[in-house]
Amino acid sequence: MTRDERLQQIIAILRDGKMHRARDLAARLDVSERTIWRDMAEISAYGVPVEGERGVGYILRRAVGLPPLVLTREELAALDHLLTLAEAVEDPRIAAGAASLATKIRAVLPPPSAEDAGEGLATAPTKS
């Protein structure tokens, strides 16, 4: 299992709304507790609303998960345009939310093809 797969698995486990100890998650995923602690820090850094701490446990609150989406190039261009507009508004919460959302989307997009040149989010550098 890759690290990304493990992070997704942790999020899927936490979606039940119950408290999960690192020890139990580690045993279930066949990794160390230390790995779970690191994974939880990364999941939290991605903006997933995880609450908890080492020695207590972790729980997912207010989770909003979207099903996988398949977007056309035109839809990606529209999304890029809307996020650009939202990043420019005066309300700092909206602007920060738009920037964060754009980062999350760019992180999961495949590398751009030659025909995607100049298409906003589709050509944005992806997280490596």
UniProtKB/TrEMBL annotation:
Domain (HTH deoR-type) ranges: 3-58
Signal peptide: none
UniProt xrefs under InterPro entries: CBASS_pafABC_assoc_protein, DeoR_HTH, HTH_11, WH-like_DNA-bd_sf, WH_DNA-bd_sf
Keyword Transcription: yes
Keyword set, alphabetical order: Transcription, Transcription regulation
Coiled coil: none
GO molecular function ontology, one term from the record: DNA-binding transcription factor activity
Keyword Zinc part of the UniProt annotation: no
Protein's name in the database: DeoR family transcriptional regulator
Source organism of the structure: Thioclava atlantica
